[in-house]
Design goal:
Strand content: 5-15%
Radius of gyration: 41 Å
CATH architecture of the largest domain: Roll
Largest sheet: 6 strands, antiparallel
Structural class: alpha+beta
CATH topology of the largest domain: Pdz3 Domain
Number of domains: 3
Shape: elongated
Number of strands: 6
Distance between the termini: 128 Å
CATH superfamily of the largest domain: PDZ domain
Length: 279
C-alpha cells in the first residue's frame, strides 16, 4: 500500500514540471493576443444576439402589419363588391345608350391596322342623330379604348358604356383607315335619361339577346362588313362606299358590290326585328 502511494507521488512530481513548462510556452504577446480575440468574439456574439432579437421583433411587427393589411384588404374588397352591386343595380335601371352597334374585330382587319388580337371593337352601325353620330364616330371605325380602358370585345364595350352616367363624356381612341384618332362623346341631354328608347347601344339590347335570328343576322352582317372593308381598302373605295363598286367588271368589284347589297339586306332585316322589340 505504501509502495503504491510512493509511486503516485513520484509520478505527480514528474508530471508537474512538464505541465509548468507547457503553460510557460505562451509569451506575454500571445496572452495579449488571445485576450483581444476573446474580447472581440464576446462583443461579436453580443452584437449578433442583439441583432437577432431585433429581427425577431421586426418579424413579429411585420407579421402583425401583414395581418392588419390583409384584414383591411378583405374589408375593402367587401366594400368594392357592395359598390359594384349597387352601381350595377343603378345602371341596369337607367342604362346609357349612345347609338352604336359593335362586333368583334376581324383578325385580318386587326392585322392590317396593327391591332393586337382580341382587342377593340368594330363599329358595325351608327344610329343617325345619336350621341356617337354627333361625336363623329363612323361605321367601320375600330374603338380601341374607352375612357382609357383597353377594350376586349363588344360585351366589354357595352359594360363600359353602361357604367357611365348620361351627360358624362366618353373619350374614345379609335383606328380609322389605319390612323389613330381621339373622339369625345357628349350626351345630348345633361340630365339622366328617362326615355330609354332615345338611345341605342351595341348588340346587348335586353330582350334581343334571346332572339337567335337577330344574333345570327348580326354575326352574318359583321362578317360581310369585315370582308367588304378589307376589299374596299384594297380597291381604294373605303371612302366611296361599298355600293360604288357596282357596275365595275372585275371580280373583286363585283364581290364588293355583292357584299354591299348583303349588308343593306341585313340592315333592313335587323331594323325590322328591332322595331318589333321597340328599339
Amino acid at each position: 500500500m505504501l509502495s503504491k502511494i510512493g509511486l503516485m507521488i513520484v509520478v505527480t512530481l514528474c508530471v508537474l514540471p512538464q505541465a509548468g513548462r507547457a503553460q510557460s510556452t505562451l509569451s506575454p504577446e500571445d496572452v495579449a493576443r488571445l485576450r483581444e480575440q476573446l474580447e472581440y468574439s464576446q462583443k461579436t456574439a453580443a452584437n449578433a444576439n442583439r441583432e437577432a432579437r431585433q429581427h425577431e421583433a421586426q418579424a413579429k411587427e411585420h407579421s402583425d402589419q401583414a395581418a392588419r393589411a390583409r384584414a383591411q384588404e378583405q374589408e375593402h374588397q367587401q366594400i368594392v363588391a357592395r359598390i359594384d352591386r349597387d352601381l350595377a343595380a343603378f345602371f341596369s335601371q337607367q342604362p346609357r345608350k349612345i347609338g352604336v352597334k359593335t362586333s368583334p374585330v376581324d383578325a385580318q382587319v386587326a392585322s392590317l391596322w396593327g391591332i393586337p388580337p382580341d382587342a377593340g371593337v368594330f363599329v358595325a352601325k351608327i344610329k343617325q342623330g345619336s350621341e356617337a353620330d354627333q361625336a363623329g364616330l363612323k361605321a367601320g371605325d375600330i374603338v380601341v379604348t374607352l375612357n382609357g380602358v383597353h377594350l376586349t370585345g363588344p360585351d366589354h364595350f357595352t359594360k363600359q358604356v353602361k357604367q357611365t352616367l348620361a351627360g358624362e363624356p366618353l373619350t374614345l381612341s379609335i383606328v380609322r383607315q389605319g390612323e389613330r384618332h381621339e373622339l369625345t362623346i357628349k350626351s345630348t341631354d345633361a340630365k339622366p335619361a328617362t326615355n330609354f328608347s332615345a338611345y341605342t347601344t351595341d348588340d346587348d339590347l335586353g330582350a334581343l339577346h334571346k332572339d337567335e335570328k337577330y344574333s345570327r343576322l348580326l354575326d352574318q352582317r359583321a362578317k360581310s362588313e369585315n370582308e367588304a372593308l378589307l376589299l374596299a381598302i384594297d380597291l381604294g373605295l373605303q371612302d366611296a362606299g361599298f355600293n360604288s363598286a357596282c357596275g365595275q367588271k372585275s371580280n373583286r368589284h363585283r364581290r364588293l358590290c355583292s357584299l354591299g347589297r348583303q349588308i343593306d339586306d341585313f340592315n333592313r332585316r335587323i331594323a325590322a326585328i328591332e322595331k318589333q322589340h321597340g328599339i
